[in-house]
Task: inverse folding
């Protein structure tokens, strides 16, 4: 079984190939804007947490298409990312009651600062809500899209992976099986 942890940063998952553009703990240093060094239909699971929002929407769709290319039929992609809807909710309600503000950004004085920090800090380029992430995953060829809860999955390999409490949008997408694809 081959499993990829994309954009691993400092989070090393045992039994996974940990991939990042600049991490010291990665098994493979790789810029995901380039094709993965894997054959078509060769990967069982792909996971990423707080990765996709660091790409432009076009780069993100390109990466999702690349995930689709390398996944085996019925292979599963799990994406955990901040949720745009949650960010906007927090703008209107209880904006100061967020762990990331209490921990690292107590200096924020207004909702506008909070929303701009959410969008533009940490090199974020594009935030998704459920509707937009589903749209882009379908565009990349995925089917059977489902929203998941923090650290929960119907697949044992994908349970308990999230490390960030602000992973509020978690989605799993399955590559459809096809009679034209070798199911070896």
Result:
């Amino acid at each position: 079984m081959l499993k990829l942890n994309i954009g691993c940063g400092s989070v090393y998952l045992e039994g996974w190939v940990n991939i990042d553009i600049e991490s010291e703990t990665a098994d493979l240093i790789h810029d995901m804007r380039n094709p993965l060094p894997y054959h078509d239909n060769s990967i069982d699971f792909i996971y990423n947490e707080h990765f996709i929002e660091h790409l432009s929407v076009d780069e993100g769709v390109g990466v999702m298409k690349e995930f689709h290319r390398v996944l085996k039929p019925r292979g599963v992609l799990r994406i955990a990312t901040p949720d745009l809807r949650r960010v906007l909710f927090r703008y209107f309600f209880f904006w100061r009651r967020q762990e990331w503000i209490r921990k690292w950004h107590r200096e924020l004085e207004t909702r506008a600062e909070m929303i701009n920090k959410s969008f533009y800090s940490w090199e974020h380029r594009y935030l998704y809500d459920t509707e937009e992430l589903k749209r882009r995953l379908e565009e990349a060829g995925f089917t059977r899209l489902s929203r998941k809860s923090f650290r929960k999955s119907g697949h044992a390999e994908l349970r308990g992976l999230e490390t960030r409490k602000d992973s509020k949008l978690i989605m799993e997408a399955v590559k459809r099986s096809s009679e034209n694809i070798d199911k070896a």
Confidence is low (pLDDT under 50) at residues 179-184. The longest helix spans residues 57-70. The first strand starts at residue 3 and ends at 6. Helices lie at 57-70, 84-92, 99-104, 111-120, 130-139.
